[in-house]
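User: I'm preparing a small set of examples for a lab meeting where we compare how different chains pack in three dimensions. I only have the primary sequence for this one, and I'd like the structure in token form so I can line it up with the others. Please keep the answer compact; I'll paste it straight into my notes.
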Amino acid sequence: MITLIEHTATLEELVQEINRFEAIVSEWDESQRCVVVGLQRAIEALHKAALKRLIKNLKQGSMSALRHAVADEVVYAVLLYHELVKPAQPPLAQRIQIALDEVRPGLQSHNGDVELVAIKPPDTVEVRLIGTCSNCPSSTLTLSQGVEKAIKSHCPEITTVIAVKNGPSVDIVGSGLTSPFLPTSTWVKVTTVEQIPESGVLALQVAGNSLILYRQGINITCFDNACTHLGSLLSQGKVENGIITCPAHGFQYRLETGECLTVPEVSLQSYPLQIREDKVFVQLQKL
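Assistant: Understood. Below is the structure token output for the 287-residue chain.
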């Protein structure tokens, strides 16, 4: 007879416990983290093999039972983590708002903003640039290289993004399944202070993120290693007087703030950073 043990911990408590251990492990040396990662992969491989067999047996016995199981948010999240189900696509309106939220900080830093005006099926979105962005000479570039790029990245079905002068604001109510494996942030040790050259940049690949770190005295900043123009690697550019120049098309950025000196509306994406003793930690998104 198989006895099932009922766990009383809530989903939130379990996620908090995972985050707590990840924070502890992030401070370990790389060799120690490798052991933990190896153990994690071995356990995950075992779980995935067991889940595949369970799904196969359920399909042969009762598809309704399988559908009922996947409807549970915890079951769905674990199966999604192991790539055994297709991710549920958030509603189009929700994905558009996520895209706008990505570019909004850069616009707001220059007293501008953007808002969704209308979604016109099947492939068109109307937005309104407001504040200084509405009458800026570079507003066309802001739209094409910032807002439009972000929307099309999150919503590939959208092919046309139009900036309108007037129009009613749209209230968006998001919906969808909440999963503990949706992106959350975690602090990751990426390097030490001495490894970042004084008045220079250090390029790193960390958890799928391409980053550059800049150090000027005791001040350190971290940004995406990608020009906001066409995504060229900034780390291959020249750094002079705290300004880095993109090697592809000459866009320039102030490394203390991420501000684009060529087109101020499209600043670099920055990452929160902490220094603990001599170690540099960056806050990254995780699954």
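A couple of notes for your slides: The first helix runs from residue 11 to 26. The chain is about 35% helix and 25% strand.

User: Perfect, thanks.
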